[in-house]
Specification:
Blueprint lengths: L1 H32 L11 E9 L2 E3 L9 E5 L3 E6 L2 E10 L2 E6 L3 E11 L3 E6 L10 E6 L2
Antiparallel strand pairs: 1-2, 1-3, 1-9, 3-4, 4-5, 5-6, 6-7, 7-8, 8-9
Length: 142
């Protein structure tokens, strides 16, 4: 009888351990390729709306009229900037979007200032350009 109870206890522990490992592996797989559910607002096409510098708004130039960023599931983005198409990967770390272009390499860090269902406002985090923090880029989801 004691042997049966011990065997049942050990079997239960093995199932619990296996279930915990499986859960950890599933979480690890999810973390590497998806955005947390609360950030799903980011996953859409964002069209350039305007710029803000020191409280003044500026419209995009003619060559920027069709500019956009499209954030997709799996950490993939596509964008159009001044007529040039680009694709790459991105990660989201708290309020910072880190974008890496497939063609150019390097990183572009965007700090999210505002994110709603229809508005995305970001500033560029560039240690080599201390004035970049004063420029806010506004996007809208049409």
């Amino acid at each position: 009888m004691k042997l049966t109870v011990v065997a049942i206890g050990l079997t239960s522990l093995v199932f619990l351990a296996f279930g915990s490992l499986e859960s950890l592996e599933q979480n690890k797989m999810n973390d590497t390729h998806t955005i947390p559910a609360e950030n799903n607002k980011l996953l859409k096409k964002w069209n350039l709306s305007h710029y803000e510098l020191f409280g003044s708004d500026f419209d995009p130039e003619i060559k920027e009229q069709e500019d956009y960023i499209n954030f997709q599931k799996g950490g993939i983005y596509s964008s159009k900037s001044e007529g040039f198409l680009e694709e790459g990967n991105y990660t989201l770390d708290a309020q910072t979007i880190i974008m890496t272009s497939n063609s150019e390499g390097g990183e572009l860090k965007l700090v999210i200032k505002n994110l709603t269902e229809t508005v995305l406002s970001v500033s560029i985090d560039d240690p080599e350009d201390s004035d970049a923090q004063y420029l806010t880029i506004h996007f809208k989801n049409k």
